Amino acid sequence: MSKNPWAQNPWFESVAVAQQRAKKRLPKSVYGALVAGSERGQSLTDNEAAFTELGLAPHVAGHLPDRAMATSVLGVDISLPVIMSPTGVQAVHPDGEVAVARAAAARGTAIGLSNFASRSVEDVVEANPNTFFQMYWTGDRDVMVQRMARARAAGAKGLIATLDWSFSMGRDWGSPEIPEKIDFASALKLAPEVVRRPRWAWEFAKEGNIPDLTAPNLAAPGEDKGPTFFAAYYEWMTTTPPTWEDVEWMAKEWGGPFMLKGVCRIDDAKRARDLGVSAISVSNHGGNNLDGTPAPIRVLPGIADAVGDDIEVLMDGGIRRGSDVVKALALGARAVMIGRAYLWGLGANGQAGVENVLDILRSGIDSALLGMGHSSIDELSPEDLVIPEGFARRLGE
Length: 397
Ligand SMILES: Cc1cc2nc3c(=O)[nH]c(=O)nc-3n(C[C@H](O)[C@H](O)[C@H](O)COP(=O)(O)O)c2cc1C
Hints:
Number of domains: 1
Shape: globular
CATH class: Alpha Beta
CATH architecture: Alpha-Beta Barrel
Structural class: alpha/beta
Helix content: 40-55%
Mean pLDDT: 93
CATH topology: TIM Barrel
Bound molecules: flavin mononucleotide
Distance between the termini: 57 Å
Low-confidence stretches: none
């Protein structure tokens, strides 16, 4: 307990409050990198706005005392239908993805670890054995085989292939300038922002750990440090984009539970199923990719109808509260993945902030189940929702 009776209680009651705190605490460029989005922000906005178009249809009595929300994703048991989506979070917190992994473990769920993450897959698996490793299509096949082998040896329980990136550049509210290394010159440049964020700077300073933007999971064998973030991005940009045969190759090469992330169309979902993926995530990369892609919650029902009996269908994008999770499950998702929600928690209060976010989602899911008179997430269906006409989008039928 703090001795100062006026000190702010670090607990927050909603993800929106976590975001406000993260905004106050993080340097402007770090906060801006998390807000992200692309071009005019049409997809970014729709991802959250679409949830506000959906209503809930509660009962007034006949509620049940027990409500179950445990499920599994890629063969891993989770205590709530929410897992951590991979995010290349650099410089939000010195413990980075290890803090996220610990929080997920403490709340009984899994983490997707980005290949652009700031912490190694070995450290993250140690913090949470239920780790899925995420890869982009970058480098040649030999390099990819070596990166998959490393993740497998570290104990990653599944592979997430994110293939929806199209290098769409430029956003109307400006991209933050991110230095490759926090060396003396860039520190001077960043100084005015950092001076206004002493708590963030202190977190790094006390660990003796200045944010160093490298991607350790992309290190060549025998190298202890990975390439810089920008060198890694260059490799990715100059790699020939994958064919469907490449996707099949990757899934076979991994040889275990495999998720294709970024699916928006029914024809792509069917193709992914036919070539043997275990799961897909219906996603538009949090609105950071091709602007104008509809919110995933709008395309989810058509995709879940088409392939939901054959493979696991997850969704991510715009989840900020437990009722959003319930809406996604009612429209056919097995579970959801969260991105910014946990990043705001991490920025606001480190590992405890991420746990706080998972607790908010858990209690929101529980309230919605209670209100709807259900004893389990398995009972959720579109009947529980108020769905306006024209809400859904069916792409590629
Ligand atoms: C800052 C940031 C970094 C991201 N980095 C990655 C990444 O490295 N790999 C990936 O598959 N998705 C990445 N994503 C996308 C997320 O996994 C997820 O699809 C998205 O955040 C979901 O939307 P939400 O933030 O509204 O929950 C990133 C998203 C954000 C906001």
